[in-house]
Amino acid sequence: MTKRTNKLLFILLAVCGIGLWTISGSSCKKDKDPMPLATTPLYDTLGWFIQGATGPVAGNGTKMIDDPDNPGQKIQAGRLAIRTVVGKSLMVIAGDTALAEYFPVLLAEVGAGNTTGYNNLLQSFTDFVQQAVSTQTGVYKGKSMRDAHNNTTYNRFGSAAVQKSTAADFDQFVGDVASAATSLNVPNSVIGQLGTLLYSVKGDIVY
Questions:
Q1: CB-based contact 95:43 (threshold 8 Å)
Q2: What residues contact residue 23 under an 8 Å CB cut-off, 6+ apart?
Q3: Rounded to an integer, what distance in angstroms lies between the CA atom of residue 99 and that of residue 97?
Q4: Longest C-alpha distance within the chain, in Å?
Q5: What are phi and psi of 120, to 5 degrees?
Q6: Distance between CA atoms of 176 and 161, rounded to whole angstroms?
Q7: How many CB atoms lie within 10 A of CB 123?
Q8: Which parts of the chain register pLDDT below 50?
Q9: What is the spatial distance between Cα 79 and Cα 68, in angstroms, rounded to a whole number?
Q10: What distance in Å separates the CA atoms of residue 17 and residue 35, rounded to the nearest whole number?
Q11: Helical (H) or strand (E) element with 175
């Protein structure tokens, strides 16, 4: 994981963490920008938001809470927050026909009712982001971002005819992330910052 990608993911989750205010049942006023607490580790802040954003923030990242998607199991609150945001983003991207050529294997599987690949992607992406923002080691065990976005090194991405992302499609991807953030009521000013940061790592995927 590059230092630049690590920084991007840190800020990305800061942005998406704001959206979790809506998921938890609170409301975001359009004339205010409710920012995560700058003095609190981001993983704690995310865990705090997913639990309703009440009480002390510190310690909520690693707090074990009930996993709503797996009855009887526990999950770190920070990880649940990250998984929620990642899942929303994947849904927006999966529904974008302009990007379908990059995910033929996954879309075919899901279309046939097989969600194994999707669940693996959700877990892997969640692992990647969790490790980036929590300082926990050994969580993500997948490929580098460059290898994961090149058909010659990862045959589930693209195809022999479409091996790597184009600049225009990267722009589309950024737009989809912004759309996901908007659906979570992330303030426009924050979405603008997110776009700037996404473009700072464009060279890791478009080369």
A1: no
A2: 49, 50, 84, 184
A3: 5
A4: 53
A5: -65, -40
A6: 23
A7: 13
A8: 1-33, 190
A9: 12
A10: 9
A11: helix 167-183
User: Contact at 8 Å (CB) between 89 and 182?
Assistant: no
pLDDT of residue 89: 81
Q: Which domain holds residue 56?
A: 3-204
d(C-alpha 43, C-alpha 57), whole Å: 10
Q: What is the pLDDT of residues 141-198, one digit of tens each?
A: 998 888 988 999 999 999 999 999 999 998 998 888 778 767 765 556 546 655 665 6
Amino acid, res. 24? S
- Which pair of tokens denotes residue 204? 């890791």
φ/ψ bin of 142: left (φ > 0), alpha (ψ from -120 to 50), beta (otherwise): beta
Query: Which CATH number characterizes residue 92's domain?
Result: 1.10.490.10
> Which token pair is 38?
């700058």
Task: Report how many domains make up the chain.
Answer: 1
